[in-house]
Design a protein that fits this description.
The protein is of the alpha/beta class and 242 residues long. The protein has helices spanning 35-42, 79-89, 94-107, 123-135, 153-170, 181-187, 215-218, 221-237, and strands spanning 3-4, 10-12, 24-28, 64-67, 141-145, 173-178, 190-194, 201-206. It binds adenosine-5'-triphosphate.
């Protein structure tokens, strides 16, 4: 599929990408190559201006969850109310919605913070609440647009593990945008490298590291070798020597 914005910017040129149900795929590429544009097209927020997007099974609105770099929580609402919002919008009765939101908060380690307001949480906790909100409808597809980019390194590593645990438990399909080679290799079953604008797929790299992943994967020689390979391909894609 291709996408030219109304101002004439050609953001994507014939992006050819297939994702299987239950896969964890990262989109890796330089700033401005069109990664967010791909997510917006998949989310149905825009239509491609060329080509098409096909689903093997029809998707409904509640089948897709979205997590952004900013946690986008409503500052005036308690965390439980923030997490319950997608269920309110879907017409789920409040009692059932509260139970499901509370359960989601427990799963991201925020069981004791239901009544807190967003301003009372750290950046990492806000991002956990955003993950809980995105997953509360049990989506089949989770779109993540650099969700951990603004977090410190230690929090980011922890959230990588938390996200993988959620993925292994709920088995949604994950499409994850990142600038980080290390993060993409740690999380993904497959990495799609997108070249500079107009974005197109320049390489697809399978990551044959076993799940569940953990510290032993991060410190292993295989992880280092795959990171090196992905980094070389990324540099080749953007025309830099490794
Ligand atoms: N609404 C818009 N109107 C016009 N051009 C846009 C719009 N949104 C994005 N673009 C342009 O499309 C291109 C791709 O943008 P996009 O945000 O998808 O890239 P990205 O790879 O996600 O970037 P980053 O990694 O910096 O977030 C950029 O050149 C950007 O300036």
């Amino acid at each position: 599929m291709s996408l030219t914005y109304p101002n004439g910017t050609c953001a994507l040129d014939s992006v050819d990408l297939s994702v299987a149900e239950g896969e964890f795929v990262s989109l890796l590429g330089p700033s401005g190559c069109g990664k967010s544009t791909i997510l917006r097209l998949v989310a149905g927020l825009m239509e491609p201006t060329g080509g098409q997007l096909n689903w093997l099974r029809p998707v409904a609105r509640g089948d897709i969850g979205f997590v952004f770099q900013e946690s986008t929580l409503m500052p005036w609402a308690r965390i439980i109310d923030n997490v319950r919002l997608p269920l309110d919008l879907a017409g789920v009765p409040k009692g059932e919605g509260n139970d499901r939101a509370a359960d989601g908060l427990v799963r991201v380690g925020l069981g004791d913070f239901q009544k807190a307001f967003p301003a009372e949480l750290s950046g990492g906790m806000k991002m956990r609440a955003s993950l809980a909100r995105a997953l509360v409808t049990n989506p089949r597809l989770l779109l993540l647009d650099e969700p951990f980019a603004a977090l410190d390194e230690i929090t980011r590593l922890k959230l990588n593990d938390d996200l993988l645990s959620l993925w292994e438990a709920q088995r949604f399909t994950a499409l994850f945008v990142t600038h980080s080679v290390f993060e993409s290799v740690y999380l993904s079953g497959r990495i799609v490298i997108v070249g500079p604008r107009p974005g197109r797929v320049v390489a697809e790299v399978p990551v044959p590291l076993p799940f569940p992943r953990g510290l032993s994967v991060r410190t292993g020689t295989d992880y280092g070798a795959i990171c090196r390979d992905v980094s070389d391909r990324l540099h080749a894609a953007i025309g830099l020597a490794a």
